[in-house]
Amino acid sequence: MNKPGLLRKSVWWRLSMAMGLCAVLCVTGMLSSRPVMAAAAPAYVRIIHASPDIGIVDVFVDGKKILSDFQFATVTDYVPIASGAHKVQLALIGKGIDASIITQEMTVQAGTPYTIAALGTKESGFLFKSFVDNNVIAGTGAKVRVYHLSPGVGTASVSSQSNTLVNQISYANASSYIPVTSGTYAVTLNASAPKAALSTRLTLKPWSVLSVFAVGLVQGDPHWRLVSAQQQGIPGMPQTGGNPYVVSETYPYYWQWGIMVVALVGLLIGCVYAFTHKRASNSAAEKRTVAGG
């Protein structure tokens, strides 16, 4: 009997089966972890204080203070927040969450950017209004969006150098995104009732998204004004239209499947070898028993 040969074969099939099992477990672990990673993708939120009848405030999300000393006509940067439902509250500074002026449930989707505006007057009541944003930029261009957040102004239109960019958007609404080339523009915002106009110069950087917020009162205080916020654009992803924040859940991990197939083939070979080796050993033992008898 060739014991060294049998030993080598035994070691080979045991090692192949062990490596195959390890590869299967590793790949299975990586694949099973992908949905958890995708589900953990946050939403992105910024807040603007656009209520002329509310002074300086604190803002709370799910009972936790996230903004303090938040003043009228101020807009924050985007910050990540867990997707799902949240309780958002606003109270005058130092008054505490129990004295909230606005308490509202809001739901945000994973990977989506939002603008949340604190709106309203004492006469109309106060509320939060959310807008779904889109900061994807094609190429090196730029784009502009106008938010009409001025109560009592009627509809508003925006023009630049006699060209109408936005035509008659109503209060608490936002325009569509307007693609433009980067540069400096003289912009005029016209209100329908009462008749009024605001003019300013806006500079758009390449590959950027400019948000223009009309806030305040045409007649009264705080007075009507334009507030702008410029966000670096996110390149669109080929073949998808490009949501800049979404974690892909369908990325083709072909190499992992390749390892899985090789591992399964190795296991199959090891099992076949073990089975045939066992049969051969049993047959040899039977022959020795017969010969000895």
TrEMBL record:
It comes from the Bacteria. It holds the Pfam family DUF4397. The keyword Transmembrane applies. InterPro entries: DUF4397. The keyword Glycoprotein does not apply. The chain crosses the membrane at residues 254-275. Keywords: Membrane, Signal, Transmembrane, Transmembrane helix. Residues 1-38 form the signal peptide. Residues 43-155 form the DUF4397 domain. This is Cell wall anchor.
